[in-house]
Specification:
Layout: H1 2-64, H2 71-83, H3 89-99, H4 102-118, H5 125-141, H6 146-159, H7 166-180, E1 184-190, E2 194-195, E3 201-209, E4 215-218, E5 223-233, E6 239-249, E7 253-256, E8 261-268, E9 278-287, E10 291-294, E11 297-299, E12 303-312, H8 315-318, H9 324-333, H10 337-344, H11 349-359, H12 369-381, H13 388-398
Parallel strand pairs: 2-12
Antiparallel strand pairs: 1-3, 3-8, 4-7, 4-10, 5-6, 5-9, 9-12, 10-11
Helix pairs in contact: 1-2, 2-4, 3-4, 4-6, 5-6, 5-7, 6-7, 9-10, 10-12
Length: about 400
C-alpha cells in the first residue's frame, strides 16, 4: 500500500516538474521570437536610416560641387555635413577619393577631430593647421612629393584663410607650385603654317627654362620621339590616314640658363600626291626619359610637346585665304571644282551655317560639283546622306538649330 502511494507521489512530482519545464521552454521560445522581431525592426530602421543619410549626404555633395555656389554657401554645406557626424565619414572618404576635392579632405579631418572631441580631447584649429603646414614643408623636401605639399597648402588657404600664419602658407604654396609647374616648356613650331605639295615641313623645337635658376637636363642618350599623322582628303572628302614615328637624337646633357632656351631644327617628309588632295599634317612629340637637375634637387618630368598642324595644298590658293568664304561662294557659282574643294577647308566654323544654307539649293544641278559638295557637307555636319533630296529635307528640319561641331557647347 505504501509503495503504491509512493509511486503516485513520484509520478505527480515528475509530471509537475515536466509541465514546468515545458512552460519555461514556451516562455523562452516566445521571448526569443519577440527579441528576433525587435532585432529585425531595428535592422530595418538602421538600413532605412542609412539610405536616408546617404541620400542626404549625396545631395549636399552635389550642392557643394556646384560652381555657382558662393564661398559662404559652401562653408554652410560643409558644416551641415560635419554635423552628421562620423556616420558620414565613409561616404565623404569615397567622394574625396573619386574627386580629389580639398573640401572633402577638410571635412574628413574635421570629423576625425570631432570624434576625438567626443572623447573629451580638445582640438585647436590653429595648432592642427600649423601641423599640416609643417607636414607640407617636410613634403617639399621629399623627392617627387611637391604636388602633395601644394595640395595641402591649397586646401588650408581655401578653407581657413584667416589663420595667423596664413602668409607662411601662401609662400609655401608658391614654392610648391613652382616645383609642380613644368619648369621646362617644350614647344614645336613649324616655320610655315601652309606648304605646297612636295616641300618638306621645317620645324623648330624649343626647350625653354621658365625657372629663375640654371637647369641641367640629363637625357640619358634619349631622343625626341615625334608622332606625325598625315590626313589626306580627296575631292569627295574621303580621308586616308597614315602615321609615322621619327626619332631625333639628343645630347647627353643640355644646359639651360635661367630664362633661356635650347633650339633644334628638323624636317618632316611631305610627298607629292598623284591626285588632287588636301593634306593636314599633325605633329606631336615627347621626351620619354629625362632627368631635370636644379641645384641639388632632381626630378623626372614628362616633357610633352603640344601638337601643331601644317596644311598642305597648292601654292596659288595659299595666297587668297584672306577672304576664303567669298572665294568659296564664287567657286560654286562658276563650278570651279578644285577651288570649291580647297577653300571649303578655310570657311570659318561661324560661317559654315550660312554656307550650308547656300549649298543645299545647288545640290543636283551640276553632276561633277555635287559629289564635292556632298563631301563638304559630310565633313561639316557629320551626316552622310546620299541623295540631295535627303539633304534638303534634313536642312529644312535642322536649319534653325544647327551648330557646327566645334562651336557646340561641350
Amino acid at each position: 500500500m505504501i509503495s503504491i502511494i509512493s509511486w503516485k507521489t513520484q509520478r505527480k512530482a515528475f509530471l509537475q516538474n515536466h509541465k514546468s519545464k515545458i512552460q519555461n521552454l514556451k516562455i523562452k521560445t516566445r521571448f526569443e521570437t519577440i527579441l528576433l522581431c525587435l532585432l529585425l525592426i531595428l535592422f530595418g530602421n538602421f538600413v532605412y536610416a542609412q539610405g536616408v543619410l546617404e541620400k542626404r549626404v549625396k545631395t549636399l555633395f552635389s550642392y557643394l560641387e556646384d560652381e555657382k555656389a558662393s564661398s559662404s554657401d559652401k562653408q554652410k554645406l560643409i558644416e551641415q555635413i560635419i554635423e552628421l557626424g562620423s556616420s558620414a565619414s565613409p561616404l565623404v572618404q569615397e567622394r574625396f577619393q573619386s574627386t580629389g576635392n580639398p573640401s572633402y579632405w577638410y571635412i574628413l579631418e574635421k570629423l576625425k577631430k570631432s570624434s576625438l572631441s567626443d572623447s573629451k580631447k580638445i582640438w585647436s584649429k590653429e595648432k592642427y593647421f600649423y601641423e599640416k603646414y609643417q607636414e607640407a614643408l617636410s613634403l617639399l623636401e621629399e623627392e617627387g612629393a611637391a604636388h602633395k605639399a601644394k595640395r595641402i597648402t591649397q586646401s588650408i588657404l581655401i578653407l581657413e584663410p584667416d589663420l595667423s600664419f596664413n602668409k607662411k602658407v601662401k609662400q609655401l604654396y608658391h614654392r610648391a607650385n613652382n616645383f609642380v609647374q613644368p619648369l621646362v616648356q617644350a614647344i614645336i613650331s613649324p616655320k610655315k603654317d601652309f606648304v605646297p605639295y612636295g616641300e618638306e615641313v621645317a620645324l623648330n623645337i624649343y626647350l625653354y627654362n621658365k625657372a629663375i635658376e640654371e637647369i641641367l637636363l640629363q637625357t640619358q642618350s634619349s631622343s625626341i620621339i615625334l608622332k606625325v599623322i598625315y590626313r589626306d582628303y580627296d575631292l569627295s572628302s574621303n580621308i586616308k590616314t597614315d602615321t609615322k614615328t621619327i626619332f631625333f637624337p639628343l645630347d647627353k646633357e643640355i644646359l639651360l640658363p635661367p630664362g633661356k632656351h635650347w633650339k633644334a631644327k628638323l624636317t618632316v617628309n611631305n610627298e607629292k600626291p598623284k591626285n588632287i588632295i588636301y593634306r593636314e599634317i599633325e605633329i606631336s612629340a615627347r621626351i620619354p626619359v629625362i632627368c631635370l637637375v636644379r641645384g641639388e634637387k632632381k626630378s623626372y618630368p614628362r616633357l610633352i610637346f603640344p601638337s601643331t598642324k601644317v596644311k598642305v595644298f597648292p601654292a596659288p590658293y595659299q595666297q587668297r585665304l584672306d577672304n576664303s568664304s567669298s572665294h568659296f561662294y564664287s567657286a560654286i557659282r562658276f563650278s570651279d571644282l578644285p577651288s570649291v574643294f580647297f577653300y571649303s577647308f578655310f570657311v570659318p566654323p561661324k560661317k559654315q551655317k550660312d554656307a550650308i544654307h547656300k549649298i543645299i539649293p545647288v545640290l543636283g544641278r551640276d553632276p561633277q560639283l555635287t559629289p564635292i559638295l556632298y563631301g563638304i557637307l559630310r565633313r561639316w555636319t557629320k551626316k552622310n546622306f546620299q541623295q540631295h533630296e535627303n539633304w534638303k529635307n534634313w536642312w529644312l528640319a535642322e536649319k534653325n538649330v544647327f551648330q557646327p561641331e566645334n562651336l557646340r557647347k561641350k
